[in-house]
């Protein structure tokens, strides 16, 4: 009997997980029938798609991209299925809006307005600006430590964290590049095979996790002032192992959004708490910049947790979160440069 209860509990749980994972829009019968109709006729209402002239059970769907569509359409037009989904979704959302209903998600995503083939244009633009901010910050930081500040007799900087910050800058640029590619996914889809959209998503998530894991290590090393290699390795090794395992889990086992969100938020909170405790006890002259980044970063994280549908089909919570990190990145690199300046002048005072 007890076994029976366990089986029922398990089945209920499976159903709940299933309901939770499917987006509300996907289960809408009107949306589904529109999709079915479109895949059969290649039309949604009066709009017909020229490259949509195959039946839904066409075996060519499983063949590579060059078998599915002519080359001249390959880079310019989206796939039939994507067009059907997009137009059915918008027609359905229009009807829902007329009835005064709130927007719902389709395939796990909010209904976004495409702009020049880009699925989430504002997220792409903000990701590109974040990339530019990190590039600018990294170049300025390197020119400060290697050309403006005095160097040791062996031509190495006095500041002990140069290498760590350079890796941080590169990982950040990588993460924002992957983010821009992922958010432009319909453009990417028209250039790549459709299967590869999954890859851009995985790359976006894993590069963000890699950055979060690395910046957590950096937060601990810098705030505790760890300058010996042995101590640094002791902090870094378990955290690198954990981050790598998590990324491998996402890539090879299951792309679990809920679990990934929990891990990312936990990593984010650990570094925000580390930096804020340090900002509270240190006498660093630029700790106010650290405070701005910690408070701003915490507020920005709330945007990622409390999602809302896109305003005018363009600006959603996620895009706003990407926008908020642009000024924070500028202040952050300014703090890093001030830190290099402060530590170098302190060490020089001691030498004298
Ligand atoms: Zn994003």
Record the SSE blueprint.
Layout: H1 2-21, H2 29-41, E1 43-44, E2 47-48, H3 65-68, H4 71-74, H5 80-98, H6 121-148, H7 162-183, H8 185-191, H9 196-223, H10 229-253, H11 257-281, H12 287-305, H13 317-351
Antiparallel strand pairs: 1-2
Helix pairs in contact: 2-5, 6-7, 6-13, 7-9, 9-10, 9-11, 11-12, 12-13
Bound molecules: zinc ion.
Please tell me about this protein's structure.
With 352 residues, the chain is mostly helical. It folds into two domains: 23-111, no CATH class; 121-351, Up-down Bundle (Rhopdopsin 7-helix transmembrane proteins). It has helices spanning 2-21, 29-41, 65-68, 71-74, 80-98, 121-148, 162-183, 185-191, 196-223, 229-253, 257-281, 287-305, 317-351, and strands at 43-44, 47-48. A two-stranded antiparallel ribbon has the order 1-2. The model is unreliable at 6-21 and 55-60 (pLDDT under 50). Bound molecules: zinc ion. Residues 123, 179, 183, 318, 322 line the site of zinc ion.
Q: What's the end-to-end separation, in Å?
A: 81 Å
Query: What is the strand arrangement across the widest sheet?
Result: 1-2
Reading the helices and strands in chain order gives HHEEHHHHHHHHHHH
CATH topology of the largest domain: Rhopdopsin 7-helix transmembrane proteins
Bound molecule kinds, no repeats: zinc ion
How many beta-strand segments?
Answer: 2
CATH level-1 class of the largest domain: Mainly Alpha
Instruction: Write down the Rg.
Output: 25 Å
Briefly summarize what is shown.
With about 350 residues, the protein is mostly helical. About 70% of the residues lie in helices and about 0% in strands. InterPro entries: Per1-like (IPR007217).
